[in-house]
Protein backbone atom coordinates (compact mmCIF):
# COMPACT_ATOMS: atom_id res chain seq x y z
CA UNK A 1 0.00 0.00 0.00
CA UNK A 2 2.99 2.30 0.29
CA UNK A 3 5.20 1.51 -2.63
CA UNK A 4 4.52 3.97 -5.42
CA UNK A 5 6.63 2.22 -8.04
CA UNK A 6 3.65 0.49 -9.60
CA UNK A 7 3.98 -0.96 -13.12
CA UNK A 8 1.37 -1.96 -15.67
CA UNK A 9 1.12 -5.75 -16.08
CA UNK A 10 2.87 -7.25 -19.10
CA UNK A 11 2.07 -10.29 -21.19
CA UNK A 12 5.00 -12.22 -19.83
CA UNK A 13 5.00 -15.41 -17.79
CA UNK A 14 6.24 -15.14 -14.23
CA UNK A 15 9.01 -17.67 -14.96
CA UNK A 16 10.21 -15.71 -17.98
CA UNK A 17 10.05 -12.44 -16.07
CA UNK A 18 12.13 -13.82 -13.23
CA UNK A 19 14.67 -15.20 -15.67
CA UNK A 20 14.98 -11.87 -17.47
CA UNK A 21 15.30 -9.99 -14.19
CA UNK A 22 18.00 -12.37 -13.00
CA UNK A 23 19.97 -11.94 -16.21
CA UNK A 24 19.62 -8.17 -15.99
CA UNK A 25 20.89 -8.21 -12.43
CA UNK A 26 23.93 -10.24 -13.30
CA UNK A 27 24.81 -8.27 -16.41
CA UNK A 28 26.52 -4.93 -15.70
CA UNK A 29 24.61 -1.84 -16.79
CA UNK A 30 25.74 1.79 -16.66
CA UNK A 31 29.15 2.26 -15.04
CA UNK A 32 29.86 5.79 -13.85
CA UNK A 33 33.54 4.98 -13.47
CA UNK A 34 33.81 3.33 -16.89
CA UNK A 35 35.21 -0.10 -17.72
CA UNK A 36 34.60 -3.35 -15.88
CA UNK A 37 35.16 -4.01 -12.21
CA UNK A 38 38.27 -6.17 -12.10
CA UNK A 39 39.77 -5.06 -8.80
CA UNK A 40 37.20 -6.14 -6.24
CA UNK A 41 38.19 -6.48 -2.61
CA UNK A 42 41.27 -4.27 -2.76
CA UNK A 43 39.74 -1.06 -1.46
CA UNK A 44 39.93 0.50 -4.93
CA UNK A 45 36.45 -0.21 -6.29
CA UNK A 46 32.98 0.66 -5.00
CA UNK A 47 30.11 -1.24 -6.62
CA UNK A 48 26.81 0.56 -6.13
CA UNK A 49 23.24 -0.33 -7.12
CA UNK A 50 20.07 1.71 -6.82
CA UNK A 51 16.71 1.77 -8.60
CA UNK A 52 15.75 5.46 -8.60
CA UNK A 53 14.54 6.86 -11.91
CA UNK A 54 16.96 9.11 -13.74
CA UNK A 55 16.50 12.83 -13.03
CA UNK A 56 14.25 12.11 -10.04
CA UNK A 57 14.89 13.80 -6.69
CA UNK A 58 16.58 10.77 -5.14
CA UNK A 59 18.60 9.92 -8.24
CA UNK A 60 19.89 13.50 -8.45
CA UNK A 61 20.91 13.35 -4.79
CA UNK A 62 22.70 10.02 -5.26
CA UNK A 63 24.49 11.39 -8.35
CA UNK A 64 25.77 14.23 -6.18
CA UNK A 65 26.80 11.73 -3.50
CA UNK A 66 28.76 9.72 -6.06
CA UNK A 67 30.52 12.90 -7.25
CA UNK A 68 31.37 13.77 -3.65
CA UNK A 69 32.64 10.25 -3.01
CA UNK A 70 34.96 10.53 -6.02
CA UNK A 71 36.35 13.80 -4.66
CA UNK A 72 37.11 12.28 -1.28
CA UNK A 73 38.29 8.94 -2.74
CA UNK A 74 40.24 9.94 -5.87
CA UNK A 75 41.91 6.54 -6.19
CA UNK A 76 38.65 4.59 -6.04
CA UNK A 77 36.64 3.60 -9.11
CA UNK A 78 32.86 3.76 -8.74
CA UNK A 79 30.93 1.17 -10.69
CA UNK A 80 27.29 2.19 -10.58
CA UNK A 81 24.45 0.08 -11.97
CA UNK A 82 20.89 1.40 -12.17
CA UNK A 83 18.48 -1.48 -11.61
CA UNK A 84 14.70 -1.56 -11.59
CA UNK A 85 12.81 -1.94 -8.35
CA UNK A 86 11.40 -5.24 -9.59
CA UNK A 87 14.83 -6.66 -10.49
CA UNK A 88 16.15 -6.14 -7.00
CA UNK A 89 12.90 -7.10 -5.27
CA UNK A 90 12.57 -10.43 -7.10
CA UNK A 91 16.19 -11.58 -7.15
CA UNK A 92 18.01 -9.94 -4.25
CA UNK A 93 18.33 -13.13 -2.21
CA UNK A 94 19.87 -15.08 -5.09
CA UNK A 95 22.30 -12.33 -6.10
CA UNK A 96 23.39 -11.42 -2.57
CA UNK A 97 24.20 -15.07 -1.92
CA UNK A 98 26.66 -15.05 -4.84
CA UNK A 99 29.95 -13.38 -5.71
CA UNK A 100 28.00 -10.81 -7.77
CA UNK A 101 26.82 -8.90 -4.69
CA UNK A 102 27.47 -5.14 -4.85
CA UNK A 103 29.16 -3.28 -2.01
CA UNK A 104 26.14 -1.09 -1.28
CA UNK A 105 22.58 -1.31 -2.56
CA UNK A 106 19.25 0.46 -2.17
CA UNK A 107 16.66 -1.97 -0.85
CA UNK A 108 13.04 -2.02 0.22
CA UNK A 109 12.23 -1.80 3.93
CA UNK A 110 10.02 -4.32 5.70
CA UNK A 111 9.89 -7.76 7.27
CA UNK A 112 9.46 -9.58 3.95
CA UNK A 113 12.41 -7.78 2.35
CA UNK A 114 15.24 -6.37 4.49
CA UNK A 115 14.09 -8.40 7.49
CA UNK A 116 14.06 -11.66 5.52
CA UNK A 117 17.55 -11.10 4.06
CA UNK A 118 18.90 -10.14 7.48
CA UNK A 119 17.45 -13.30 8.99
CA UNK A 120 19.07 -15.32 6.20
CA UNK A 121 22.46 -13.79 7.01
CA UNK A 122 22.76 -11.97 3.67
CA UNK A 123 23.06 -8.43 5.08
CA UNK A 124 25.80 -6.87 7.18
CA UNK A 125 24.92 -5.84 10.73
CA UNK A 126 25.58 -2.07 10.70
CA UNK A 127 24.78 -1.41 14.36
CA UNK A 128 28.29 -0.52 15.50
CA UNK A 129 28.95 1.52 12.36
CA UNK A 130 25.69 3.47 12.82
CA UNK A 131 26.81 4.40 16.33
CA UNK A 132 30.41 5.19 15.36
CA UNK A 133 29.37 7.47 12.50
CA UNK A 134 26.46 9.03 14.35
CA UNK A 135 23.73 7.84 11.98
CA UNK A 136 21.68 6.66 14.95
CA UNK A 137 21.66 10.26 16.24
CA UNK A 138 20.70 11.79 12.90
CA UNK A 139 17.75 9.42 12.36
CA UNK A 140 14.90 9.55 14.84
CA UNK A 141 13.65 6.53 16.77
CA UNK A 142 10.41 6.36 14.77
CA UNK A 143 12.13 6.76 11.38
CA UNK A 144 14.70 4.07 12.18
CA UNK A 145 12.23 1.33 13.15
CA UNK A 146 12.20 -0.06 9.59
CA UNK A 147 16.00 -0.06 9.51
CA UNK A 148 16.33 -2.19 12.67
CA UNK A 149 15.42 -5.90 12.93
CA UNK A 150 15.45 -8.67 15.48
CA UNK A 151 16.65 -12.27 15.14
CA UNK A 152 13.33 -13.24 13.51
CA UNK A 153 13.72 -10.56 10.84
CA UNK A 154 10.97 -8.39 12.27
CA UNK A 155 11.32 -4.62 12.25
CA UNK A 156 11.86 -2.65 15.42
CA UNK A 157 14.70 -4.84 16.67
CA UNK A 158 18.03 -3.68 18.07
CA UNK A 159 20.29 -4.33 15.07
CA UNK A 160 20.67 -1.94 12.15
CA UNK A 161 20.62 -3.65 8.74
CA UNK A 162 19.72 -0.58 6.70
CA UNK A 163 20.30 3.18 6.72
CA UNK A 164 17.44 5.36 5.42
CA UNK A 165 18.17 8.86 4.15
CA UNK A 166 14.66 10.16 3.66
CA UNK A 167 11.18 9.80 5.08
CA UNK A 168 7.66 9.32 3.77
CA UNK A 169 4.32 10.17 5.34
CA UNK A 170 0.68 11.08 4.78
CA UNK A 171 -0.32 14.71 5.21
CA UNK A 172 -2.97 17.26 4.20
CA UNK A 173 -2.93 19.24 0.95
CA UNK A 174 -5.11 22.36 0.84
CA UNK A 175 -6.36 24.49 -2.07
CA UNK A 176 -5.74 27.86 -0.45
CA UNK A 177 -7.63 29.76 -3.14
CA UNK A 178 -10.84 27.77 -2.57
CA UNK A 179 -10.58 28.25 1.19
CA UNK A 180 -10.23 32.01 0.60
CA UNK A 181 -12.99 32.16 -2.03
CA UNK A 182 -15.52 30.55 0.31
CA UNK A 183 -14.23 32.37 3.40
CA UNK A 184 -13.35 29.10 5.15
CA UNK A 185 -10.52 29.01 7.69
CA UNK A 186 -7.86 26.38 7.19
CA UNK A 187 -8.16 23.83 10.02
CA UNK A 188 -5.78 23.44 12.94
CA UNK A 189 -7.55 20.62 14.81
CA UNK A 190 -10.23 17.99 14.23
CA UNK A 191 -13.07 20.31 15.20
CA UNK A 192 -12.05 23.00 12.72
CA UNK A 193 -11.32 20.31 10.11
CA UNK A 194 -14.85 18.93 10.34
CA UNK A 195 -16.21 22.50 10.34
CA UNK A 196 -14.37 23.16 7.08
CA UNK A 197 -15.79 19.95 5.59
CA UNK A 198 -19.30 21.05 6.53
CA UNK A 199 -18.79 24.56 5.14
CA UNK A 200 -17.56 23.28 1.77
CA UNK A 201 -20.44 20.82 1.55
CA UNK A 202 -22.89 23.64 2.32
CA UNK A 203 -21.32 25.54 -0.59
CA UNK A 204 -22.09 22.60 -2.89
CA UNK A 205 -18.53 21.23 -2.96
CA UNK A 206 -17.49 17.69 -2.01
CA UNK A 207 -14.50 18.56 0.20
CA UNK A 208 -12.36 15.40 0.27
CA UNK A 209 -10.51 13.78 -2.64
CA UNK A 210 -10.49 9.99 -2.40
CA UNK A 211 -9.88 6.77 -4.35
CA UNK A 212 -11.48 3.47 -3.32
CA UNK A 213 -9.74 1.23 -5.84
CA UNK A 214 -6.27 2.03 -4.54
CA UNK A 215 -4.42 2.73 -1.31
CA UNK A 216 -5.90 6.20 -0.42
CA UNK A 217 -9.23 4.92 0.96
CA UNK A 218 -7.45 2.47 3.27
CA UNK A 219 -5.03 5.16 4.32
CA UNK A 220 -7.99 7.32 5.35
CA UNK A 221 -9.50 4.53 7.45
CA UNK A 222 -6.23 3.85 9.25
CA UNK A 223 -5.62 7.57 9.77
CA UNK A 224 -8.98 7.86 11.50
CA UNK A 225 -8.10 4.92 13.76
CA UNK A 226 -4.81 6.62 14.64
CA UNK A 227 -6.77 9.63 15.88
CA UNK A 228 -7.72 7.51 18.91
CA UNK A 229 -4.53 5.44 19.14
CA UNK A 230 -1.49 5.60 21.42
CA UNK A 231 2.02 4.21 21.01
CA UNK A 232 1.11 0.87 22.60
CA UNK A 233 -1.79 0.39 20.19
CA UNK A 234 0.47 0.96 17.18
CA UNK A 235 3.11 -1.41 18.56
CA UNK A 236 0.49 -4.08 19.20
CA UNK A 237 -0.87 -3.83 15.66
CA UNK A 238 2.36 -3.33 13.72
CA UNK A 239 4.96 -5.09 15.87
CA UNK A 240 2.77 -7.83 17.41
CA UNK A 241 3.52 -6.73 20.96
CA UNK A 242 0.00 -7.36 22.21
CA UNK A 243 -3.49 -8.45 21.24
CA UNK A 244 -5.41 -6.19 18.87
CA UNK A 245 -9.11 -5.57 19.50
CA UNK A 246 -10.69 -4.90 16.12
CA UNK A 247 -13.88 -3.76 17.80
CA UNK A 248 -12.12 -1.50 20.29
CA UNK A 249 -12.51 2.30 20.36
CA UNK A 250 -9.81 2.97 17.74
CA UNK A 251 -11.19 0.83 14.93
CA UNK A 252 -14.80 1.56 15.89
CA UNK A 253 -14.21 5.31 15.67
CA UNK A 254 -12.54 4.84 12.28
CA UNK A 255 -15.33 2.91 10.55
CA UNK A 256 -18.14 4.92 12.14
CA UNK A 257 -16.54 8.27 11.28
CA UNK A 258 -15.79 7.10 7.75
CA UNK A 259 -19.44 6.09 7.28
CA UNK A 260 -20.63 9.35 8.84
CA UNK A 261 -18.49 11.40 6.45
CA UNK A 262 -19.78 9.32 3.52
CA UNK A 263 -23.38 9.90 4.60
CA UNK A 264 -22.76 13.64 4.96
CA UNK A 265 -21.18 13.82 1.51
CA UNK A 266 -17.68 14.77 2.70
CA UNK A 267 -16.46 11.76 0.69
CA UNK A 268 -18.10 10.92 -2.63
CA UNK A 269 -19.43 7.35 -2.66
CA UNK A 270 -18.87 7.01 -6.40
CA UNK A 271 -15.13 7.44 -5.83
CA UNK A 272 -15.08 3.76 -4.84
CA UNK A 273 -13.72 2.79 -8.28
CA UNK A 274 -11.02 5.45 -8.59
CA UNK A 275 -7.23 5.05 -8.56
CA UNK A 276 -4.75 7.23 -6.71
CA UNK A 277 -3.95 9.27 -9.83
CA UNK A 278 -7.69 10.03 -10.17
CA UNK A 279 -7.65 11.35 -6.61
CA UNK A 280 -4.80 13.74 -7.35
CA UNK A 281 -6.60 14.89 -10.50
CA UNK A 282 -9.60 15.82 -8.34
CA UNK A 283 -7.30 18.11 -6.37
CA UNK A 284 -5.36 19.47 -9.36
CA UNK A 285 -8.58 20.27 -11.27
CA UNK A 286 -9.95 22.07 -8.17
CA UNK A 287 -12.94 19.75 -7.86
CA UNK A 288 -11.92 18.89 -4.30
CA UNK A 289 -10.30 21.48 -1.98
CA UNK A 290 -8.69 18.97 0.40
CA UNK A 291 -6.54 15.93 -0.32
CA UNK A 292 -4.96 13.83 2.39
CA UNK A 293 -2.25 11.68 0.85
CA UNK A 294 1.41 10.74 0.80
CA UNK A 295 4.31 13.10 0.24
CA UNK A 296 5.07 11.00 -2.87
CA UNK A 297 2.41 13.10 -4.64
CA UNK A 298 4.21 16.34 -3.74
CA UNK A 299 6.60 16.52 -6.69
CA UNK A 300 3.88 15.88 -9.26
CA UNK A 301 1.61 18.50 -7.71
CA UNK A 302 4.43 21.03 -7.79
CA UNK A 303 4.69 20.49 -11.54
CA UNK A 304 1.00 20.08 -12.38
CA UNK A 305 -0.56 22.91 -10.38
CA UNK A 306 -0.09 26.22 -12.16
CA UNK A 307 -3.38 28.07 -11.66
CA UNK A 308 -3.98 28.17 -7.89
CA UNK A 309 -2.19 28.50 -4.59
CA UNK A 310 -1.87 25.41 -2.42
CA UNK A 311 -0.15 24.37 0.77
CA UNK A 312 0.61 21.37 2.95
CA UNK A 313 0.29 20.74 6.68
CA UNK A 314 0.03 17.82 9.11
CA UNK A 315 -3.44 16.27 9.08
CA UNK A 316 -4.99 18.12 12.04
CA UNK A 317 -7.16 15.27 13.30
CA UNK A 318 -4.40 13.10 14.72
CA UNK A 319 -0.98 13.32 16.34
CA UNK A 320 -0.01 10.19 14.41
CA UNK A 321 0.03 9.50 10.71
CA UNK A 322 0.93 6.81 8.24
CA UNK A 323 4.63 6.96 7.48
CA UNK A 324 8.12 5.66 8.11
CA UNK A 325 11.71 6.04 7.13
CA UNK A 326 12.15 5.50 3.39
CA UNK A 327 13.89 2.67 1.60
CA UNK A 328 17.48 2.38 2.67
CA UNK A 329 21.06 1.48 1.88
CA UNK A 330 22.15 -2.02 2.82
CA UNK A 331 25.60 -3.62 2.72
CA UNK A 332 25.55 -7.27 1.60
CA UNK A 333 27.41 -9.76 3.78
CA UNK A 334 29.42 -10.76 0.71
CA UNK A 335 30.32 -7.17 -0.22
CA UNK A 336 34.05 -6.98 -0.93
CA UNK A 337 34.63 -3.34 0.04
CA UNK A 338 32.46 -2.69 3.08
CA UNK A 339 34.53 0.26 4.34
CA UNK A 340 33.97 2.07 1.05
CA UNK A 341 30.26 1.28 1.27
CA UNK A 342 30.14 2.81 4.74
CA UNK A 343 31.97 5.91 3.47
CA UNK A 344 29.39 6.33 0.69
CA UNK A 345 26.45 5.96 3.08
CA UNK A 346 28.07 8.54 5.35
CA UNK A 347 28.18 11.00 2.44
CA UNK A 348 24.47 10.49 1.75
CA UNK A 349 23.85 11.43 5.38
CA UNK A 350 25.92 14.64 5.10
CA UNK A 351 24.34 18.09 5.28
CA UNK A 352 25.20 18.74 1.64
CA UNK A 353 23.41 15.71 0.21
CA UNK A 354 20.53 15.92 2.69
CA UNK A 355 19.97 19.54 1.64
CA UNK A 356 19.85 18.48 -2.02
CA UNK A 357 17.17 15.94 -1.12
CA UNK A 358 15.16 18.68 0.57
CA UNK A 359 15.47 21.22 -2.23
CA UNK A 360 14.39 18.55 -4.73
CA UNK A 361 11.09 18.07 -2.88
CA UNK A 362 11.91 14.98 -0.85
CA UNK A 363 11.95 14.58 2.95
CA UNK A 364 15.53 14.31 4.25
CA UNK A 365 16.00 12.79 7.70
CA UNK A 366 19.08 14.70 8.80
CA UNK A 367 18.68 18.37 7.89
CA UNK A 368 16.79 21.24 9.52
CA UNK A 369 13.86 22.75 7.57
CA UNK A 370 15.19 26.30 7.94
CA UNK A 371 18.24 25.35 5.82
CA UNK A 372 15.97 24.61 2.83
CA UNK A 373 15.40 27.57 0.52
CA UNK A 374 12.41 26.18 -1.41
CA UNK A 375 9.42 27.36 0.68
CA UNK A 376 7.09 24.50 -0.29
CA UNK A 377 9.78 21.93 0.42
CA UNK A 378 10.48 23.59 3.75
CA UNK A 379 6.77 23.39 4.59
CA UNK A 380 6.75 19.69 3.73
CA UNK A 381 9.81 18.86 5.84
CA UNK A 382 8.42 20.83 8.78
CA UNK A 383 5.24 18.75 8.61
CA UNK A 384 7.23 15.51 8.58
CA UNK A 385 9.35 16.61 11.53
CA UNK A 386 6.18 17.29 13.51
CA UNK A 387 5.45 13.58 13.39
CA UNK A 388 9.03 12.35 13.49
CA UNK A 389 9.88 14.30 16.64
CA UNK A 390 6.77 13.10 18.44
CA UNK A 391 7.00 9.40 17.57
CA UNK A 392 4.09 9.99 15.25
CA UNK A 393 5.01 7.69 12.34
CA UNK A 394 2.68 4.70 12.59
CA UNK A 395 3.68 2.76 9.44
CA UNK A 396 1.00 1.46 7.04
CA UNK A 397 -2.13 -0.63 7.64
CA UNK A 398 -1.29 -3.46 5.26
CA UNK A 399 2.19 -4.15 6.65
CA UNK A 400 1.36 -6.61 9.45
CA UNK A 401 0.26 -9.60 7.32
CA UNK A 402 1.21 -11.01 3.90
CA UNK A 403 -1.40 -10.21 1.23
CA UNK A 404 -3.14 -7.76 3.56
CA UNK A 405 -3.20 -4.98 0.95
CA UNK A 406 -6.00 -6.69 -0.98
CA UNK A 407 -7.93 -7.23 2.25
CA UNK A 408 -7.72 -3.55 3.08
CA UNK A 409 -8.80 -2.43 -0.35
CA UNK A 410 -11.76 -4.82 -0.36
CA UNK A 411 -12.83 -3.77 3.13
CA UNK A 412 -12.76 -0.04 2.40
CA UNK A 413 -14.62 -0.56 -0.86
CA UNK A 414 -17.23 -2.51 1.05
CA UNK A 415 -17.60 0.40 3.48
CA UNK A 416 -17.93 2.90 0.63
CA UNK A 417 -20.57 0.68 -0.98
CA UNK A 418 -22.71 0.71 2.15
CA UNK A 419 -21.34 -2.24 4.11
CA UNK A 420 -21.98 -2.33 7.84
CA UNK A 421 -19.03 -0.82 9.76
CA UNK A 422 -18.53 -3.70 12.18
CA UNK A 423 -18.76 -6.28 9.39
CA UNK A 424 -15.95 -4.37 7.71
CA UNK A 425 -13.88 -4.68 10.89
CA UNK A 426 -14.46 -8.43 10.84
CA UNK A 427 -13.06 -8.47 7.28
CA UNK A 428 -9.90 -6.83 8.55
CA UNK A 429 -9.73 -8.97 11.65
CA UNK A 430 -9.84 -12.46 10.13
CA UNK A 431 -6.61 -12.51 8.05
CA UNK A 432 -4.71 -10.52 10.67
CA UNK A 433 -5.52 -12.97 13.45
CA UNK A 434 -4.92 -15.96 11.17
CA UNK A 435 -1.40 -14.72 10.39
CA UNK A 436 -0.47 -13.65 13.91
CA UNK A 437 -1.62 -17.05 15.22
CA UNK A 438 1.13 -18.69 13.14
CA UNK A 439 3.76 -16.64 14.98
CA UNK A 440 2.94 -17.99 18.42
Explained architecture:
The strands form three sheets. This protein has a five-stranded mixed β-sheet with strand order 2-1-3-11-6. Strands 7, 8, 9 and 10 form a four-stranded antiparallel β-sheet that branches. Strands 4-5 form a two-stranded antiparallel ribbon. The protein starts with 13 loop residues before the first helix and ends with a helix. It has two domains: 195 residues, Periplasmic binding protein-like II (D-Maltodextrin-Binding Protein, domain 2); 199 residues, Periplasmic binding protein-like II (D-Maltodextrin-Binding Protein, domain 2, 3-Layer(aba) Sandwich), CATH 3.40.190. 46% of the residues lie in helices and 10% in strands. Strand 1, helix 2 and strand 2 form a beta-alpha-beta unit. The N terminus is likely disordered. It is an alpha+beta fold and 440 residues long. The chain has 19 helices and eleven strands.
